[in-house]
Amino acid sequence: MTLNNDADLRKAWEHATDQVTLFTKHTITVPYKQEERVYETHTLPLWEWALDLLDNPVLAPHFVWDAQRVYKHNGAEFERFYNEPWTGDRWWDVQSRLPPGLKAAPFCFILYADKTRLSSHGTVKAYPVIVRCANLLVGIWNGEGIGGGCVVGWLPIIPKDADEGGKPGFVNLKHVIWHESFLKLLELVVQYLKTGYSHQCFDKIIRWLFPILLILSADYEEQCMMSLIRGQNCKCPCPVCLVPLEELHDLSKTFAFRSMQDTIDALNVYKTSKGRGEALLKALGLRAIANIFWLIAHSDPHEAISFDHLHALHIGMWKHLLEELKKILKALGRSAEAKLENHSVINITFSDGNKMQDLSKQTLYSALNVLTHRASPEGYQLLRVIGSYLQLDSYIGLNVHTTSTLAALDAEPLVFNAALKDYVERASMSPIEDQKLDWDFPKTHLWKHVTQDIRMKGAARNYSTHPNEKLHGPLKEAYECQSNGKDVADQILRIDQRKYAVKLLRVRVDTLDEQRSLPDDEAKAGEARPDLFEGHIKLGSPQQPISVQDIENSHSQKDCVFQGFRCKFSDFINTSLPGYGYHLERWVTIPANFQIQEHQYLKLTQDVSVFALLVFMFKCQLPDVGSFEFTLVQPFTAGIVGAPRRIDRDFRLTRIKAVPRASSIFVPLCSFIHSALLYPDPAHQDEFIVVDHIDSDMFMRMKMWAR
Fold it and tell me: pTM surpassing 0.85?
């Protein structure tokens, strides 16, 4: 196919768009103060989108219909683990309540909604609704290709009114319009709630599919809109449980969960007696509005609302902790601020959640030698709060949870709670001004429910808002580069659908290419692209070959580790190599001109026994033995003198110490199994702290190390 000009491209786009379900514009009319207010909303019927996925031959083999309870043996016993949504209890419970006698299965939706700015100056905004299908693997529905997130709605944004803003009637109007608009999106879904939808699946089994709203992914403001609670200052500001406002800071207490039926009962009281009903709704923190999600069976919005890792932690709780840290550093003076700024960038403002997460990880280790117990008792206690915060962040971020990790996650909020109480007590007696003493706000409390969410709906990444907020970017790009600023919703949604149609065509072309490729073509392709990995290591960035004598001459003056390099290498080959299973017929002599090739990059793909610093990696050919990859390392196996330090106990640090540089040794490169990030302790020479929060894999390895 040849496209000669822009007109050809547009025509091809239009033909491609015919392959997908199109958006429909609706008008929402709501009475307010003796007048009818009219708003526009755009929706792509949710069930039509679902049918597009079901009919896609590329996605069909990947659908999972049945709930699973999966166990693995940990060496002592079998324990259950949770990752995908269907491994959680909510899927199991829903499927158990579907009509018996049928091959019934849930078609599970994940819905997200949030406002975003389209223009750089913030005057033009959008309110997209994004859907994902939880029946697909998380790698598919959290990805950017076909089967990933899709914009299916564009909700109206009610303009601010100086005279009406903040008034209960006007606030309720916004909520009514939101739910009426959402109803347009759910119309076909509601139609199949009782009857189900008959569909022959990839395994040739005809199933009756029932639409289920499994997960609502949203920040706190949107959770209030979805659950119709009155917001962060109401008497019960949690959308999941009935915790009183004044108890939000106390994670040691547990309160009753909200339920859809209790909310319906309270609204019925309001309908019969407005005064009595208003008092009841106010006590529960609810609005006198019917929730549109009540129409969907087995989809209690309070159960579907899920913990949001991004807004609750990275741009939520961490922001408050960071502000407290800045106040304490300012009070200590410029020298303390400068010390910390040498290793961290706390005075740069970030709005990106990933950057804020990285900042939290580096700040703890950078501040340990600044906010000591003697220099700043309140600062030291704040670091204990941050340390517990990082423990929670790492546990919540695991992509696979087990019974034991959930038990640890259940216990950690109590540690955080105790540390926060101690900090508030210290701050109340501190001369430092404006320290935060009131921590009764929702983000202090919300992670109380994260363990329950994981047990019910799988790992936290299943309901993170991060992949959904990433889809705001293409909408902003479409507005800035491809629209004229008029009829914004129509133009941007048309552009978004074109992009989706192009993805669909790309997948079909790739699939056709795969089907047409011949076996011998695949074999040739395999020969042309040899696997670059040997076992679990990969060496890269090769340097020019050099003799061992030249290495010793050029490096030994600057670094004692290279003194006697050739002699140490010769001893290693002859005394240690047989221990790795190589039989030597004779003593291997390493001449001065023996050539080795240095490499300056190492990638590891695979448990931790000993920490070591890579000094010099190289390849060489040993006569009559073969080709080898070795490295000169400085082991971190020196003993640490004295009793365990208080700082290590308080912050659960793993401290290691390097042997003298001159005591470095050679080891085969294949003995390395994991990379590590170490923070040098400025107060103790050759001692390092292991940064175990760098990723979830390292975090769990260090938990095993500590045992």
Answer: yes
Dihedrals φ, ψ of 482, to 5°? -130, 5
Q: Are 137 and 84 in contact (CB under 8 A)?
A: yes
Residue from 203, 57, 202 nearest 508 by CA:
57
What is the tens place of the pLDDT at every residue in 114-171?
999 998 887 899 999 999 999 999 999 998 888 999 999 999 999 887 677 778 889 9
pLDDT at 523 over 60: no
Tally of CA atoms within 13 A in the half-sphere of 580 that contains its CB: 15
The strand pair at 655-657 and 70-73 is best described as: unpaired
d(CA 223, CA 305): 7
**Number of other CB atoms surrounding residue 244 within 10 Å:** 16
What b/e sequence results for 308-331 when a residue is b if at least 16 CB atoms lie within 10 Å of its CB, and e otherwise? bbbbbbbbbbbeebbebbebbbeb
The 3-state secondary structure of 2-37 reads CCCCHHHHHHHHHHHHCCCCCCEEEEEEEEECCEEE
Higher-scoring residue by pLDDT: 690, 518 = 690
Residue 619's CB is within 10 A of a number of other CB atoms, namely 17
**CB-based contact 501:17 (threshold 8 Å):** yes
Instruction: Report CA-CA distances (Å) from 390 to 34, 310, 383, 387, 620.
Output: 53, 14, 10, 5, 43
Q: Are 458 and 402 in contact (CB under 8 A)?
A: no
Q: What pLDDT, on a 0 to 100 scale, did the predictor assign at position 455?
A: 97
- Residue 664's CB is within 10 A of a number of other CB atoms, namely 25
Q: What is the DSSP string of 93-112?
A: HHHHTSPTTS-EEEEEEEEE
